[in-house]
Amino acid sequence: MTKDSSRRQTRAGLVVGVLSLSGVVVALQQTLVVPLLPEFATASGVSNTTASWLVTSTLLTGAVATPLIGRLADMYGKRAMMLACLAVMIVGCLIAATSQSFLLLVLGRSMQGFATALLPVGISIMRDVLPPEKLSGAVALMSATLGIGGMVGMPLAGVLSAHWGLSSLFWVTGAVGLVVLIALPFVLPESAVKTRGRFDFLGAIILTVAMTALLLAISKGTEWGWGSPVTLGLIVVGVGLLGSWIPWELRTPAPLVDLRTSVRAPILVSNICAVLLGFAMFISALAATQELQLPVESGYGLGLSASAAGLAMTPGGLLMIGLAAVSPKITRRWGAKTTLAAGAIVIAFGYLLRVVLTPTLLSISLGAAVVSAGVSFALAAMPTLITESAPLDQTASANSVNSLLRSVGTSTGSAVAAAILASSTVMIGAAAVPALHSFEVLYSIGMGVSVAAAIVTLSVRVDSPAPAHRIATPSESAKPAEVTELG
Fold first, then answer.
1. What angle do CA 212, 26, 417 make, to 5 degrees?
2. What is the dihedral of CA 243, 248, 250, 254, to 10 degrees?
3. Fewest C-beta in 10 Å: which of 76, 89, 222, 481?
4. What's the start-to-end Cα distance of the chain, in Å?
5. Contact criterion met (CB below 8 Å) for 276 and 449
6. Is the Cβ–Cβ distance between 152 and 99 less than 8 Å?
7. Higher per-residue confidence, 293 vs 468
């Protein structure tokens, strides 16, 4: 190996490492708060229902901002938009860490939601600056960081809050974000691949309002009542605006989302699976941690603390790390479509184990680990399908739409899980806890949704794309110098 070749490989490794660390930032800001919502409620003097806005606000901001950030990244520079998202997230962490009121805490958490865009934009950068033969492995590793961050996040939350208080959660997340913010300009070259045209402000406004209305209705429907005027009104507004947004995007010369690109078979399959598997992914983590923390008196709960329940999910996170090196080999040999179908089938098998096995620490941890293994394959395959098929100057926006649709799936999964777990309960003392049957119903739904994703993937023909560096694009002639430098 020549000295120049060694230097390029080292540079490529640093790029992948820093971008993967940004994925850990995304996972931490999503998971750290979740197991400690009751503590936040007590500390802020609000109800548990009100405290859930600490999660809902981050979800809404991330889901809505991601497609907008993706389009801006394609137009004005991917590294620049990653730096902007990190800066907003860090300021949000500072506000949350130093806040003296619940409203400021929610504001800080909302700003942290901008970090969600780091993952799809980072994956699109990999396509621009890495040689094609390294792309699938890098995408798999960055996708697996969601599992790594989630694995660390839940037990870490308990340790941090116990020793340094609730504000330490935001100081730690902000510190990790600051490390990435400082490292990015030194390690990552700005991509020369940019799309021309004006930013679609009207399309952005319509999509923002529509998705906010729909996601808010889905997230809060169980709490507000699915037949309440507020929930129904939000659904009507969201659906109506989306109905006007689609023809606008088809007519405007510089759309926020190129819907014609989105219906290409590989991208369409990935987007459908994003909704279905986003639903299945969320149910697994939510149901497993709840089941582990149920009182022992129920006869099926294990009475674990939030930190212990998080540690029980560690095998799944470790499995995701290990499989980050396996899924690219499957993709290179049989294609990303096969990897995605395999992931969906493995997720379904993990849910089958949860249905048939008696709930014990081993069986719950095993079932969750198998689901995590399938998630590892799916999260690596979906952006690979998109990255191989989208025009070079649309990869950030295409991956961002996929991330948005995954948020729709997770929000729907949260709503369905809450409704099912509340529909069948047993009394333990003065408290009502979900009955074992409700968990079995939830796992069966997760299995069915995963099977549906596998059927969709296998039933749609996905032709093998051209190599990443030869995909025809409007700006193909403007291939960035960084590809040669890192290749």
1. 55
2. -140
3. 481
4. 13
5. yes
6. no
7. 293
- In total, how many domains does the chain have? 2
Say whether both 303 and 362 belong to one domain: yes
Confidence of residue 5 (pLDDT cuts 50, 70, 90): low
- Is 290 in the same domain as 193? yes
Q: 302: number of CA atoms within 13 Å, CB side? A: 20
Residue 289 maps to a domain: yes
Percentage of the chain with pLDDT > 90?
29
Q: Which residue, 253, 271, 293, sits at the end of a domain?
A: 253
Q: Quote the CA–CA distance of 18 and 187 in Å, as a whole number.
A: 8
SS3 category, 446: helix
**Is 69 inside any structural domain?**
yes
* pTM of full prediction above 0.90: no
pLDDT of 481? 34
Q: Report how far residue 1's alpha carbon sits from residue 314's, in angstroms, rounded to the nearest whole number.
A: 38
Contact status, residue 71 vs residue 121, Cβ threshold 8 Å: no
Token pair for 385:
């399908």
* b/e 165-202 (16+ beta carbons within 10 angstroms → b): ebbbbbbbbbebbbebbebbeebbbbbebbbeeeebee
In a domain, 171, yes or no: yes
CA atoms within 13 A on the CB side of 454: 19
Whether residue 267 sits in one domain with residue 206: no
277 and 392 together in one domain: yes
Please write the tens of the pLDDT for every residue from 284-339: 877 887 888 888 888 888 888 767 777 787 788 778 877 877 888 888 888 889 99
pLDDT recorded at residue 161: 84
pLDDT value for 482: 38
Which H helix or E strand runs over 133? helix 132-164
Q: Which residue has the higher pLDDT, 345 or 133?
A: 345
> Do 281 and 352 share a structural domain?
yes
Say if residue 153 is in the same domain as residue 233. Answer: no
**Any domain includes 484:** no
Angle 348-359-308 from CA coordinates, rounded to 5°: 100
